[in-house]
Amino acid sequence: MVIRRAQDVRSSEITDERLYFNRREFIRTAGSVLAGTAGAFALGEGLASAQAAIPQYRKLPFGPFHTDEGVNTFNDITTYNNFYEFGSDKSDPARYAGRLKTRPWTVKVDGLCAKPGDYDIDDFLKPALLEERVYRMRCVEAWSMVIPWIGVPLGTMIKQFQPAPGAKFVEFTTLLRPTEMVGQQTGILDWPYVEGLRLDEAMHPLTILAVGLYGKTLLNQNGAPLRLVVPWKYGFKGIKSIVRIRFTDKQPMNTWQRMAPNEYGFYSNVNPEVDHPRWSQKRERRIGEFLKRKTLMFNGYADQVAGLYAGMALKKFY
C-alpha cells in the first residue's frame, strides 16, 4: 500500500467540498435527524431517503498516514456491515439500525483515571473538535474496504481524563438496548459487546474515534454516534455505539475472545501468517472486486505500528 503525507494529497480525492458543512450544526442536529429517520432505514429506497437527510460536514484536513487507495462506495460502506446488535446478516444493520435513538447519549468514563464521570456526547467530544480529521483507512475482516472516516484521535480524548500511572488498558462497552437493537434479543453473543486495547495502542495516532464517514455524520449501521477504528486490527475490534470507556490495570476480556478463545485473541492484529482455525487469512476479498488480494501485515501499516509489538510472539499473542 502506498501511504502519503496528508499535505501531499488533494482534498478532491475524498469528496467534493460542497459536502462539508458546519460542524457545530451537526452536533446539534445529528441525533434528532437520525432518530427522526428511524423508519426509513430499510434497504434501497428507504436508505436513500434517510441518507439525504443526514447532516453534512464542513471541509476537513486529512489525518496522518492517509492512504491514496480508492475508497469503497457510500452504498458499499453503509449496506454491507457486521453489527450483530442488529443481526448477523450483512444487510441486517442497514435494515434495522434506524430504530436506534442516538440522542440523548452519555459516555461513562471510569476506572483508573483522574476525571471519571458521565459525559453527554457533545461535551465528551468538544475538547477534540479542533483535531477532527478525515482518515481514509483500510479496514479488514474476512473482507476489506477502504473507508473515509471522519474522526478524532482517541489519544486526544484519553489525555483529558488523565489516566493513572497504573492504567495499562482501555476497555470499551457498547450500548445495551434490546428494544432498539434487535440482535440483542438473541443469544448469538454475550451482551453487551466489550472490546479493549493496550493503552499504548489506544494512544497511537492511527487509532481514532469515528463520528462520521464520506463527508456525513455516522449512520447507525456504522456505529453511531461514536465508534472505534483501529485499522491495523481486524474489524471486530472496532467497537460501535460506545457508552463506556474504562481504564484498568488488567487486560480486558473482549466479547469474541470470551465466546471463542481458540479463534479470537485479545490483539487481533492483521497477520497473514496466523490462520483462523476455520479459514486462511493470507488473502482477503475487497468489496467490489472479484479476485482476492494478498493480506498485508498489520493491514499495510507495519511501518507505523510494528514497534508496538517488538519482541512479542505474534502467533501466541494473536
Salient structural properties:
318 residues; alpha+beta; Sulfite Oxidase, Chain A, domain 2; seven-stranded mixed beta sheet; five-stranded mixed beta sheet; 21% strand
Describe what this molecule looks like in 3D.
With 318 residues, the protein is of the alpha+beta class. The chain has one domain (3-305): Oxidoreductase, molybdopterin-binding domain (Sulfite Oxidase, Chain A, domain 2, Alpha-Beta Complex), CATH 3.90.420.10. The protein has nine helices and 14 strands. It has helices spanning 23-36, 45-53, 74-79, 92-96, 121-125, 154-161, 199-203, 255-259, 302-305; strands spanning 3-4, 66-67, 106-111, 117-120, 133-140, 143-153, 169-174, 194-198, 208-213, 216-217, 227-229, 242-248, 283-286, 293-294. The strands form three sheets. Strands 5, 6, 9, 10, 11, 13 and 14 form a seven-stranded mixed β-sheet that branches. Strands 4-3-12-7-8 form a five-stranded mixed β-sheet. A two-stranded antiparallel sheet has the order 1-2. Strand 5 and strand 6 form a beta hairpin. The two termini are 23 Å apart. 45% of the residues are buried. Residues 1-46 and 48-52 have low confidence and may be disordered.
